[in-house]
Amino acid sequence: MSVAFRRESDDEHLEPVFELPIPPGPNLVTERGLALIRAQVAACEDKVQALVTAGAEEAEIKKARREQRYWSTRAATAELVPAPDGEAVGFGCSVHFRLNGKARWITIVGDDEADPAAGLIAWSAPLARAMMEAEEGELVDFGGKAEAIEVLEIKPASVGPDGIYPVG
């Protein structure tokens, strides 16, 4: 039989499964972000253990272990950033700004903690990067437009019992 028609196993023809992508750059975290990552690690460990105990299918266990590796890597590489002083826009600050005539508050947090709908923007996002190091009253360029953002107010993020909140 020709080698072209011989097949060792069905696994040879499966799509490769890659690791979950890690955001580039340092893994900066707030205290809340570090707690969230640690909670994810614990939840993943529990999930893997439950799947193994229940005798789940190998594919499901592999998927859970892949997620566990992601969160374990994020925990191992986390760099806790001290609370900011609020003098200039930086990691962990809440910023009141005006863009396109609309004023709003955001808080700059780590990649895994970001939730734009809740006003939590990753430090690596273009909006956050544009405002970094700006001071109150400063105009900064954004989206190819000169002086597109006006920084109105800067405060250290306020932390409540269940998370970080943009002030305002």
Automatic annotation (TrEMBL):
Pfam families: GreA_GreB. One of its GO terms (biological process) is regulation of DNA-templated transcription elongation. This is Transcription elongation GreA/GreB family factor. Transmembrane segments: none annotated. GO terms for molecular function: DNA binding; RNA polymerase binding. PANTHER family: TRANSCRIPTION ELONGATION FACTOR GREA, TRANSCRIPTION ELONGATION FACTOR GREB. Residues 87-155 form the Transcription elongation factor GreA/GreB C-terminal domain.
